[in-house]
Structures are given as structure tokens and as C-alpha cells.
Amino acid sequence: MNGQGWKSFPHSLCEPLTRKTREGEEKMKQIDGGITAPKGFTVGSCAAGIKKRKKDMTVLASATPATVAGAFTTNVVKAAPVVWDQQIVEERLPVHALVVNSGNANACTGKQGEADVQAMAERVAKHLAVSSSQVLVCSTGVIGVPLPMDTVLSGIDTCVSQMDSSAESAQSAAEAILTTDTFTKTVAVEIEVGGKTVRIGGMAKGSGMIHPDMATMLSFITTDATIGADHLQRLLGKSVQDSYNMISVDGDTSTNDTVLVFANGAADAPAIEAGTAADAVFTEAFQFVHTELAKQIVLDGEGAGKFIEVAVSGATSKHDARLMARSIISSSLVKTAFFGADANWGRVLCAMGYAKAQFDPSSVSISYASDSGMIVLIKDGVPIAFNEELAKKILLEKIIHVAVQVGDGAGEATAWGCDLSYEYVRINGDYRS
How confident is the model over 2-15, as pLDDT tens digits? Predict the structure, then answer.
């Protein structure tokens, strides 16, 4: 977990979290390659000098204009790159490229920040012989500090000169977008559409300031599928609700949160049309990619030592189930109880109670499970005497599952989070330094 230094994502830790029971899974295969696994995408990265001795810039390009969809921070304070990207996405403009820097958020930087975003887009556009309105821009890092533009523009030149579609370049790109992250977050899958292989790849960053309704995170998804902008935007909107909006590390959201999806049609497969069998397969794979990236962000939560999955079932609606799951996973008292391996189920019930969801407390059942076993803490509203030693053993594991049954309704939702530790305070106490 966090604090261990940069490393590749621990896939063995993630595998038990991936549900393998959905009907479409046999048509989906997880592959290597990350952001450049789909055809027609290249990427180049470098250590431009925004950060000390670490990669901090990357440029991603599509050989042909790509359909784009986006989701952005709900914070009223939005960084200059977010405003730029929102306009392009809202106008449904085709996009050729993306430039990302880490180490500086270009947030709360006024008119200069806006001008710097445009300059970054124009520099990439000049290299690729496209319009600056076809270049998206993202930044992440310290707020309120102007970008060192000579360094940034020189970095763009270097990144473009190194662009290719190799898995190594995809991995370098995933490193270049990190801030306090300790490992890269990537995923790629392939499916079949109309007899053609279609791929979806992605990379993300995020470790702190992670909370439902987006977070201090960036997530970039590529696909060589053919899909219209309106349908892609609808799919992303739905996917965000059950992935990035169901994770929490520390209760904070930021100024730069962005998810961008690029679809360039390079697979030469039939177009993905809403309501078709191909759409169902694509949607399954699309959701898998976003969910896996969201889980990886939580696994790398700042100072975190435990990954917590909360599954709420039996609610009167999916909306109510979401509210309760998010409230539990976001509670500082719940997080600290898990940090101390304390089976304090009262904190879980309390978090449900202020979630503004409808449920009958007398029907609630709560259980905890991990590789060390399973224990029921409350059944149909009645506390159950349990073995404290077993409970402690269960909660000392790295991956913990919390099951909450609230009735016999059809609403269910799952949220993911982590514990809250002393290390989180240390990391954020000297973030600027």
C-alpha cells in the first residue's frame, strides 16, 4: 500500500476483488498494454523538470480523430485545464491528443493559468498538425502555483519525439501522471464485436483527496471501437456512478478531477449502437475497466493499509443502497475502526443512519469477512455475540468485505474504501515540500 515507493500494481491483490459471474465475461479477456493496447494510439513521456527526478509529462495521440466523452470534478473551484476540457467535450468536437503534466495542478492561477492551458494545447497541436481545439489538457499536483511554462513546453517537445504504441511507453505514461501514488494504475481488455477484436485500455492516478462524486484523480480510457459521442457520454455517465463515485479515501474532492474517454474506430468493427448485443458486451467491458481503475486508486490510498469493500443489499432502491454504501465507506470513524481492527459495527449502522436513505433499522444485518473467516455482528436488528479474537483476526487482513442487508428490496450497491491511518496525516502534513 502507500508509502512503499513506486511499483507496478499488485495484481494478486486485485484479483479476488474482481467479480467473475457476469454473463458477458466469457467474451472479455484481460490483456497487457494499458493505454496503448487499442489500435491507433501512441504515447510519449518524460521527466521535464516540474518534479524532482521523476517523470512528469506525457502526450497521448490518436492517429485519427477520436470521439471523446468526459466527466469532471463537482467542485465549484475548477482548474483551468478542466474548464478547457469541458468546453471541448460539451461541443462534441473530435479530438486528436491529450497532454498531461503532474507536479502542478494549474488551479487557482487566474488568466495566466488559462493562457498556459492554451499554450500547451497549441504546442501539441503544432507538432501533430491539428487544431488546438483537438487537444485536451490535464494537470495534477500543487494548487495555486503558476506552471513553469518553459519547462512544460520543452517537455511537450520531448514527449512528442518519443511517441510510440509500445507497452513500455504505456507504462511510462502511467508513471508520468502520478503524484503521491506509490504504484501505476493500468488495465486493458479485449472483446469481439461483429467478428472483429475491439480493445479498451486505461490508466489512472489517485491516492489522496478521494471521495464520492469524483476525487483528486485522473483517469484516461482509450478504445478502438466505433461509437458516437452522445452514446459514449451516456455510457461514461452511468459507469462513473458505479465506479469512481463509489470510492473514498479521505472525504476530500479536488479542483482537477477528470475522466476522459477516446474512441477512434481503428478496430474497423461495426459501430456500437445502443440496445444491441454488441452494446451489452462493450458496456460490460467498459464498466470493468473503470471499476478496476477505481479499485486500484483505493488500494493506493494515502497511508492506507487495508482495502474495504462495502456491499449493501435489500434496499428499496439502488439510489438508497448507493447512499448507504457511500456513507459507510466515507465515515472517518468507520475508517479508523478498521485501522485499529476494531469490530465496532455501531459506527457502520450510524453512518447508514445519516445517509438520508430509507431503511428499517430492525431489519439490518451486518457481517465482516476476509481471508481469515467471516463473522456476523448483527442479525435482523439484533446484536449477535461474537468471538472478539476471531473478529480481530479478520480485521487484521489487508482486504476486508463488509456485507450489509437492510431488507428484502431489490436495491444493491457496492463501495470501496480504505482505513485512515497516522501515515495519512504525515503524507499530507508536508505535501508541498
Answer: 433 323 334 434 44
Q: What is the pLDDT of residue 48?
A: 97
Question: Can you tell me which residue has the cell 450510524?
Answer: 350
> Residues 182, 216, 222, 226: which is the catalytic one?
216
> Which range has highest mean pLDDT (107-121, 206-220, 287-301)?
107-121
Cell numbers representing residue 44 in the block: 510519449
Task: Please indicate whether residue 216 is annotated as part of the active site.
Answer: yes
CA gap 270, 207 in Å, rounded: 38
Q: Decide: helix, strand or coil at residue 412.
A: strand
- In the numeric block, the cell 475548477 is attached to 78
d(CA 421, CA 301): 10
Extents of the domains making up the chain? 25-299, 307-429
Long-range pairs of 267-270 with CB within 8 A, sequence gap ≥ 24:
267/38, 267/39, 267/193, 267/196, 267/197, 267/198, 267/199, 267/224, 267/225, 267/226, 268/196, 269/193, 269/194, 269/195, 269/196, 269/197, 269/198, 269/224, 269/225, 269/226, 270/193, 270/194, 270/196, 270/226
What 163-166 contacts at long range (C-beta under 8 Å, 24+ apart), as own/partner pairs, is 163/42, 163/43, 163/44, 163/59, 163/61, 164/42, 164/43, 164/44, 165/36, 165/41, 165/42, 165/43, 166/36
Q: How far apart are CA 365 and CA 34, in angstroms?
A: 40
pLDDT in tens, 26-69: 579 999 999 999 999 999 999 999 998 899 999 999 999 999 99
Q: From start to end of 35-145, where are the E strands?
A: 41-46, 57-72, 95-104, 135-142
Tell me which fold the domain 25-299 belongs to: L-amino peptidase D-ALA esterase/amidase (3.60.70)
For the 307-429 domain, the top CATH level (class) is alpha beta
Cα–Cα distance between 420 and 428 in angstroms, integer?
A: 12
* Amino acid symbol at 82: V
The 10s digit of each residue's pLDDT in 340-359 is: 999 999 999 999 999 999 99
Q: Can you give the pTM of this predicted structure? A: 0.85
